[in-house]
Fold these 3 entries.
Entry 1:
Amino acid sequence: MEGSSATLAGYGMGGSWNHGRMPESPEVQELANFLNAHAAGRTIRTVDVLLPKALKTATPPIGMLVAARVAEVSRIAKMLDIAVESPEDGIRHVIVHFGHDGWVLWHDSAPDDLKRAGEATLVARLRLSGDVAAGPGFDLTDAGQWKALTIHLVRTPSDVPAVAKLGPDPTAPGFTEAEFAEIVAGRRKQIKALLQDQTALAGIGNAYSDEILHAAQISPVVHAALLSGEQVSRLYRETRAVLLGATEARRGVPPAELRASKIAALRVHRRTGQTCWRCGGTIHEYSFSGAAAQYCPTCQTDGVLLEAG
């Protein structure tokens, strides 16, 4: 948003049901693209952490980022990897996990004060070098009730436990159907839960798991071990198609519009009571473990309505 002091990259909703606002791999990928284009090559002038519990590492101190150069911003699953470089310390990585309701607020001119800009809690603010005295910068924010955004400053990304435990990213070019089948085979776990298990497959959350299962015409509560070979093959294809399609659809979308773009494109998630695009039936909702999911009984469960778990 040229000419404005801040560009809102989106906020989540409080409460236990996220309703598709959790950043998943397609949105985090575009956030990484945006920050890489706008922040890479710039020097960090100041860094302030306003919510101490968000910072999960003590050594080195977060202040060592001052005067370091942002080398590259990339995505790891649903996390941002901000690689910074300094002559004295070499490369370090700032790993940001957004949790349910974390996000980024970009400033064309970073404010001098540390007041939040918008509705979400200001977790951290980084000011960067620029062509004018008040250079650009960005905030890490959290609009959730429990403030689950976390920040790690580490030598390598795998030093972060959540990164070290990640399963393969299903959008990776070399991710094969055989690898997918090996992950699914024999697992006595509901397939929706397995798709969201970051130690099994990295980058999928509540919204895209609903979209994938609907596209594959598979019940969200069936155990993975009970899927036929044909169902596993179909689920592999749709997992990649949904995620890669969403990633391409988000490409170039301004940060302020990313979440709205995601929500507008969803075909079953958040569509309770609406018409299924495939069969003309009605989308239903069921709740489980404090969350909610949507599905089409006609397409996915042979007409059976799922009971709350």
Entry 2:
Amino acid sequence: MSFEHRRRSRAAPLKNGIKVMTALQLPLFREVELDFIEEYCRVLKPIAISIDRLQGQNAYFYGELLPTLFAVQAKLQDLQASNLRSCSHILQATLLGFERRFSNFLQLKTDVNEAILARVTHPFFKMRWLPLRLTCEKKRIHQLILHAAEELGLLSSAASTSTTEENEDEFFVFSDQGIDNQMDTEVLPSHCKAELETLHFLEDPRKDLASLDSYPLIKLLFVRFNTTLPSSGPVERLFSFAGMVYRPHRRGLTPELLEKLVVLKNN
């Protein structure tokens, strides 16, 4: 960003700031101080936006964690090429601290498999969040989906759901129906059907959650790994209700009764 462009972009805020500082009889900011504030905001903007997103309570899923972390890392790395004059050391320290804190997530270690599954089963992201340096992990992630489904015993559940949907209308009789069903069962066992469904899901261009209805196994995995409590807001509200219930004249309440009263108050 050129000096002239920066000067024009902050002309109006600077003018208002001068009025405020003059009215308060405070010394005005120098040009170097304004440059520092602007660069400081640019460096910490990705962190602030990511925290705000991860604190969301509406339509937020655990699967958004990994893409958010990769997005923050990419934005901080892009800032390194912008030749910051005042906050380059802050940018370097922020990037190093961020990568050290979330190294397991950024390197897709085995201890973050649940975060990977939560992300890849979300129709909006699938494999799109994966950076180029980690494209070699696609095969492992694909196998991770099948292993998780088998470990949780979801292969039989998905197969029974699919069979129920296919046999909703039993009025019509087809002479080759039994043969087709027998061939499907013999040729495509549960794990093969799961692998085929996973491939279709990953190639499906739809991004809305309604598309999960077409993939019963993926939907079960999505519910399993994305049904979390990502925000502390509901818990904090419960603490507020507890303060309303646990008053000085009710100090004799047992923990069990207090818990029931708080739940009733919240609902």
Entry 3:
Amino acid sequence: MLAAKDRDNEAYRDQSIPLARAVCGVVFSPSFPLKQFPTWQYQRGGFPVRQDEIPAATLIKPMEQWAWEETQQPDLPIILIGHSAGAQFLDRVAAYAPANEVEIILMNPATYVEPETDSPVPYGFNGWPENTQQQSIKRYLAEHLTILLGSDDVETTLEAGRIAQAMGQGRNRLERGQWAYAQAREEAYRLDVPFNWDIDIVPNTGHDGPKMLASPELREAVERVISRVSSQ
């Protein structure tokens, strides 16, 4: 579970416990302190890469390995869930640094990575190594990823308003999420590649982490993943 920009991982951990109990899961909520992980490392996942800096998104893979060792369950399916800034971080994981998770669930992120080469990293793949650009885009589209949006998350945040790429994706988080899903689906069709994204709306909910975590829609998304993995 990845927290919002206030990095209140302990609160998000505690608010995730009812869901974990309902699906017989285990919650891990890593800490990304603001001092060590400023906005470009957290919300943007550490991309574009700066000299001598390890992108924070690449830390997910060793964290997953640690979780398997900690639980002593090496076959435990891992679902990454993030809200707001944490969801922005996980979208960069999905696009630029995927690991061994079976699903990534993005709740109310302010910006997305677009599966095309016009927008610059960390909003697209312009600037990504040319020899792996198309392969990375196709893999991103094939990632099992769910966009979960609050129906009332329609305010334009000041921070996102300063980012031209964000405003190009829509006026608010609800619009951007719907736009990102539609754009990705269209691109997957154009490239004739698998498309494994889903999208759902949580009714009567704004930019509210606790309500999103307690929503039937999130539980249904998690249960769908568990059912899919169990049948494989």
